[in-house]
Amino acid sequence: MRHARCWIHGCLGALCLLLVDSLYAADVVKVGGAHFPPYVIKSNLHDSSGLLPQLLEALNREQSEYHFTMLPTAIVRRFSDLQRGRIDMAIFENPQWGWQDIDAEAVDMRLEDAELFVARNEALRDQSYFEQLEGKRLALYRGYHYGFAQFNSDPEFLTSTFNANLGHSHDSNLLMVIRGRADVALVTRSNLYDFLERNREYARQLLISERVDQVYRHHAMIRAGAPITPERFATLLEQLREKGELQRIFSPYRIAVTQDVTDSSATEYAAD
Question: Which of 3, 4, 68, 267 sits most deeply, having the most CB atoms within 10 A of its CB?
């Protein structure tokens, strides 16, 4: 019996060493994570959650060549973090959002979200309310780029030009609208329907625009010299797409998983 126990302990020890060796053998890819629900919730190393951690887990399960790990950053700091090599990759980005002068290559993730206008639902108020923003109090997300503002995210420009209140929470912006402290909030579709799922009592109090401020065609920005090449990352994403993993992760949040790289209209996401 003693010999059997020794043999089992020896096997367990060898297995642990193999696991440690395989982790160290993998190239570590540091992916920036900035707090922005539902993509990243609480961007720290201990209790973060959201779509980015789920995606990284799926990528790590898919292969052993790379180990993807999230490194906390901030929306306004992610450009410099990528430029100086603190992170290797920024995910859920758009090449137009200030990346033009940074030595990084974009990979189309073939995932689509959208930015919608939301107002308080009142008698006689309809879709025409969203046609004119001038004179309305806007609730916006600080550091974000909006189509109606020509993607200029400068806080002073937004506050002076559009009478905007800049916050750090889509939930808070929506509550400002519900409580009459703002007239219109701009919210990502994924966050809006996540909010309504968590706060169903507010569903009838909100008027959601048919007008779309912008459609996000999500990209991954990979810095020059990163451990993984853009081509290899695109291949891994395609493997997850074919297995239905991207659909499993993103469709519950109405993030469209496109099926044809040449046709962004060929999309799938859960309706409810």
Answer: 68
Report yes or no: 167 and 14 within 8 Å, Cβ to Cβ.
no
| pTM reported for the whole predicted model | 0.77
Q: What is the pLDDT of residues 11-29, one digit of tens each?
A: 555 555 445 554 457 899 9
pLDDT beyond 60 at 53: yes
Residue in the structure block whose two tokens are 């974009």? 106
- Structural domains counted in the chain: 2
Count CA atoms within 13 Å of residue 85 on its CB side: 5
- What are the C-alpha distances in Å from 104 to residues 68, 90, 109, 153, 270? 18, 10, 15, 21, 33
Six-digit token string for 27: 């190239």
> Are residues 165 and 33 both part of a single domain?
no
Please indicate, yes or no, whether residues 93 and 146 belong to a single structural domain of this protein.
no
Q: Is 8 a member of any domain?
A: no
Reading the block at residue 230, the tokens are: 């853009």
Compute the half-sphere exposure of residue 139: CA atoms within 13 Å on the CB side of its CA. Answer: 26
Longest dimension (CA), the chain: 83
The stretches of the chain forming alpha helices (DSSP H) are 2-25, 51-62, 78-83, 155-162, 170-178, 189-198, 230-242, 245-250
Say what the alpha-carbon torsion angle 149, 151, 155, 161 is, to the nearest 10 degrees.
Answer: -20
Amino acid at residue number 17? L
- Give me the percent of the chain exceeding a pLDDT of 70: 85
Crossing angle for the helix pair 189-198 and 170-178, nearest 10 degrees?
Answer: 70
Which residue carries 């030009």 as its tokens?
Answer: 161
Shared-domain flag, residues 102 and 234: yes
pLDDT tens across 128-159, in order? 999 999 999 999 998 888 999 998 989 999 99
Q: Are strands 89-93 and 27-33 parallel, antiparallel or unpaired?
A: parallel
